[in-house]
Description:
Number of helices: 5
Number of strands: 6
Number of domains: 1
Shape: globular
Structural class: alpha/beta
Radius of gyration: 16 Å
Helix content: 40-55%
Distance between the termini: 17 Å
CATH architecture: 3-Layer(aba) Sandwich
Amino acid sequence: MFLRARRRQTCHPCHIRCGPGLGRSVAEKFGREGYTVALVARNKDKLEKLAKELRREGITAHAIPGDLMASAEIGKLATHIRQTAGDPDVIYYAPTSPDMTFVPAAELTPEAIEANTTLLLTTFAALVSEFLPHMVAQKSGAILTAQGTTALQGTPRMSGPGPAMAAQ
C-alpha cells in the first residue's frame, strides 16, 4: 500500500499486496487519518472491489493491478503508482502468495526459495529503490513491512519464507 496524506500535499502511502484482512485494516486506518491509499495486488477485480468499498467509507483509494512476482517490471509498476497517486511517503509491504507455504526443511525446494526471495526481498528492494529518493528529498517518509515470526526464529516443520523475510 502506498499512502499520501491529504493534509500535506507531499505525503501518501502505498499498500503493496492489499488483501481483505490485514491489508484492508491498514488501508482503512491510514485512510481515516486522511491519507490517499494506493492499493496494489494481482487480482484486478478484487482490488477494484476493495477500493470501491474504501471510497464508500470516504477514503480516497486507487486500485493499481500489479504482479509482485515480476520484479523486473517494478519500474513500470512504480511509474503507474506515481501517475495515479503520486510518489508515496509511506509504503506498507506485506505480500503473500498462494504458493508461499511452510513445509519441513527436507521438502523445501530451490524453486520455492527463489519464489519467496523474489516476492519478499527482491521486489521489496526494487520498490524501496524507486520510492526512497522521494522520501529522502522530502526529509519525511516511512517504509513498513509485516513479516511472520519465522523471520526471527525458526520453527520445526515451518521452512519456507522465513529466510527471505529475515533478509528484509
